[in-house]
Amino acid sequence: MSAGRWLLRAASIGAALGLWQLLTSLDVTLWLRFEQFPTVGEVASAFADRVGTAAYWQDLGHSVRRIVVGFLLAAVLGVAVGTAVARSRWAADLLGPLLEVVRPVPAIALVPVAILLLPTNEQGIVFITLTAAFFPVLVSTRHAVRALSPVWEEAVLTMGGGRARVLFSVVLPGALPGIFGGLSVGIGVSWICVISAEMISGEYGVGYRTWQEYTVVDYPGVFVGMVTIGALGWLTSTAVELLGRRVTSWLPRPAARPAAPRASRTPLGHRASRTPLVPARAGVPVHDPEKESVS
User: Fold this and answer.
1) Which of 134, 147, 169, 261 is 20 to 30 Å from 204 by CA-CA measure?
2) What whole-number distance in Å separates Cα of residue 192 and Cα of residue 185?
3) Average pLDDT value for residue range 273-295
């Protein structure tokens, strides 16, 4: 990425922070009410205070661990089930209806189910995170596998390859771009649901701490939690995207746009003649004004 693009991105964040500071410091109240919003300086001061405490890093560690465990389980199960449903009619008939019934249910609505089924709150939060990321990965994998051309599979079978060879040499590599698209969506949904689950049934974590700050009307602390959640979500989604680029490095990448050609000039510094060239007909000479001027 060029320095100009980095500068533009930094300028957009700076402009948003500047607008936030202006609206809150002036207590602007039009339709939106900013008089109770903390200023950027207050949030920055609260953030500096929180970073220096052990509780902040403990909550951060709990949330990251829940995300990593739940997301990895969802990635493995989503790819496996999505491939099976796309490749096998038996799997599609047995699992397809059940998955389509459960898929529209929000993962956060499964919190009572997790509390009833699982022995600890920690396992329940991981279960919610797994469920949130599972269905985006499942759907993306299923569509990516079904979209593959059968030509490569037939070529492998013709050369004597078996089902395992087709799966690991054709199906999974060909579906990787779609799989990583589902993983990128899944990691974002996981953060939404893990924070919500921590607010409802957690004991530690960024979501739990943010809710506690809200209950004691510590609004700068609430915004510290929001900033932390946003930063963690951005870092994890960027990591998934970079991993996807590394794994699919064999795919063609869009080339940089060539620079626009400049107007050509003659050796004497004059612009080239703009007289259109007319193709010569049989027996009719081509009109050339330069030759006439020389003669």
Assistant:
1) 134
2) 11
3) 47
